[in-house]
Amino acid sequence: MMALATDIRSTDTGFAQIVATLREGLARRKVYRQTLAELRSLSDRELSDLGMHRSMLTRIALEAAYGK
């Protein structure tokens, strides 16, 4: 009977890990989308003042959300 309880707990832990991984992925995706939207809302002049070009925005947003 004890082995069954151990197996159930290990299955729950696996499921909890999957849920945590999914939540983390969704949170990172949200950071990416929000960062990209904010950068796209800037004018070319504002981007230039920050040392950025419009062609760099996707890469910058990916780095902000997922790291290098």
Oligomer: single chain
Envelope shape: elongated
Helix and strand composition category: mainly alpha
Radius of gyration: 20 Å
Q: Count every helix, treating DSSP H or I runs of 4 or more residues as helices.
A: 3
Count of beta strands: 0
How far apart are the termini? Answer: 48 Å
Q: Which consecutive residue ranges, at least 5 long each, have pLDDT under 50?
A: none
Arithmetic mean of pLDDT:
88
Largest sheet: none
- Report helical residue fraction: over 70%
**Strand content of the residues, in percent?**
under 5%
Q: What is the ordering of alpha helices and beta strands?
A: HHH
Domain YjiS-like: 22-57
InterPro entries: YjiS-like
Q: What labels describe this entry?
A:
0% strand; elongated; mainly alpha; YjiS-like
List the helices and strands and how they pair.
Layout (H helix, E strand, L loop, with lengths): L1 H39 L3 H6 L7 H10 L2
Helix pairs in contact: 1-3
